[in-house]
Amino acid sequence: MLRSDVMTATQLIVRDTDAETEVVSRKGHSTNLVGIPTGLLASDAFNRATLPLRLAGVREANHGLFALLDQADSTEHAATLFTAYMEVMFGLHPEQRGRSNRSGDGRRRYRSSYARLIRGWAHDSNGPEGAVLKGWVESRFGLFPTFHKKALRRFSSAAWMEYVEEKMGSRFHSNAIFSQLDLVYEFAQWSLARFQPRLRTISLYRGVNDFDEHPIVEIIDRRLVVVRLNNLVSFTSQRDIASWFGSYILEAEVPSCKVLFFNGMLPQAALKGEGEYLVIGGDYRVRATYF
Description:
It is globular, with a radius of gyration of 20 Å. By secondary structure, it is of the alpha+beta class. It has one domain. The protein is about 40% helix and about 20% strand. A hairpin with a 1-residue loop joins strand 1 (about 145-150) and strand 2 (about 150). The strands form two sheets. Strands 3, 4, 5, 6, 7 and 8 form a six-stranded antiparallel sheet that branches. It has a two-stranded antiparallel ribbon with strand order 1-2.
């Protein structure tokens, strides 16, 4: 990737942004549930500091789960324990979706589940499931999404209104779905700390064809740039797989504290791509190369 390519992409993004009258200039809300200012959390400096993150009150409210997990001797054992706990807590097991899951007319009621959202994301990250996941990141980490079907530049835009409508839709926004995702995140963090304790950052890759979805905010050198990623974004641990999705490969050192989900963590809810990770976004320093 040549410096001139980066400069051209930057100029186009700046012109498009200047054309908007109500640019969403802030990175996110003033409050979140992780106790770190959102502006810092979204910064490249935070990623390089590799600080731990915790969602307030989640482990305390589910002390029994994490006490049980501490007895697990393998990732498979831990995944089994976590899945069983989620089934009991949120009525996700088929045997529990019997009479108690029927409405007055006898029809089964739909129960939202974290597994459905993750499978939906794998199919289309800009679908309703993707909107709910981005809404959860916005609620818990304070980070605004930057893209959902279209670039999200103004709160009053049609694109932003469509995102809000989908993230609040009753089809997936029920059965304490945000609480389910809280536990998924905390389980991911527990799993990484337990089975890969020395891991602070993970080298991950993302393929892109342009920088419309990932605007460049700083050019450091010929190949190194800082891009603003969506508040939730997919990466892969395999560079060759990233090349399937775009001509430019973005290589980032992702702090483990920003990992929401990864393949192997919960086999029954695996993403479709090998080595795929769901990562909390913000500004990331990436090495951009042309594959």
